[in-house]
Specification:
about 280 residues; alpha+beta; 5-stranded mixed sheet; about 65% helix; about 10% strand; rod-shaped
Length: about 280
């Protein structure tokens, strides 16, 4: 073996040694890189799992929000429907209130007319009575009704239910008013004190008050031609006192006959017309 051959062998041996060293370094580098890639891959897998979990959670939240929105929309639609129905009811109620107000205004107008007529009637009667008669006749308008209260001593004979002579002139003036106001009905109401009566054919104060009222009714019919269909006689006995019966003056005030003049019911209903229909 010559020197040239030895040299070439040495070169080959050195190359092989160098090649072996290079392969080991590359292998170590590849292993390190592989480890890094594996670690990165594992980290990425974990991040992906977290992201998928987050996505699932967000999808659940979105689904819940959609359900809540649907429920809210349904509630809103129902509220709008109820509000619409309520508005319709309010409109109906407003219409009813307006109709009621119109009816009330109409009644006020009717009452005003009735009060005006009663005031004229009262003034006419009061002006026709003398000062002496006014001491024993009281004329008032209460709640649209004219009350003419006549003293018992002036109207009847003592201890009797027969009309006295001195009452004739006063009754004639009252009869004229009744005749003039032909659309009015007339109730004659007898009242007594609480002192028991002891007379033949008169059982008690009920009888006496009714007999006295009947006497006035018949007097107005027979002497002044007042239509009896307009007249009603009634007695309240001792049970409608103005004041206490404890004193003589009180008992005297309670012994009275009232002539009550009221508009005829059918005439009054004609004035106010029919009431509005219930709705």
């Amino acid at each position: 073996m010559n020197g040239k051959t030895l040299f070439i062998g040495a070169l080959l041996a050195g190359s092989m040694m160098l090649s072996g060293c290079a392969s080991k370094k590359q292998l170590a580098a590849c292993q390190t890189e592989n480890q890094e890639l594996s670690a990165n891959f594992q980290s990425t897998k974990e991040q992906l799992a977290v992201a998928n979990s987050r996505i699932a959670s967000l999808e659940d939240q979105l689904s819940a929000q959609k359900e809540a929105y649907a429920a809210l929309q349904g509630s809103l639609d129902k509220s709008l429907t109820n509000a619409s129905q309520t508005n319709v009811q309010i409109d109906k109620l407003v219409d009813q209130i307006n109709e009621s107000n119109q009816y009330i205004r109409h009644l006020v107008e009717v009452k005003s007319k009735s009060d005006s007529l009663n005031l004229v009637l009262t003034n006419n009667l009061t002006r026709s009575l003398s000062k002496e008669e006014l001491k024993e006749v009281d004329v008032q308008v209460l709640k649209g009704v004219v009350y003419i209260s006549l003293n018992d001593n002036m109207l009847y004979k003592t201890g009797s239910y027969e009309i006295s002579d001195r009452a004739a002139e006063t009754l004639s003036k009252i009869a004229k008013i009744i005749i003039d106001y032909k659309d009015y009905d007339v109730l004659i109401e007898g009242n007594t004190d609480n002192v028991p009566i002891s007379r033949e054919n008169i059982r008690n104060n009920w009888d006496l008050s009714c007999l006295r009222a009947s006497s006035v009714v018949q007097y107005l019919q027979n002497n002044f031609g007042i239509d009896p269909k307009r007249l009603t006689a009634g007695g309240r006995g001792e049970y409608n006192p103005l004041v206490s019966n404890e004193t003589a003056n009180g008992r005297q005030r309670n012994r009275r006959t009232q002539i009550i003049i009221t508009p005829k019911l059918d005439q009054f209903l004609d004035l106010i017309d029919a009431a509005p229909d219930d709705k």
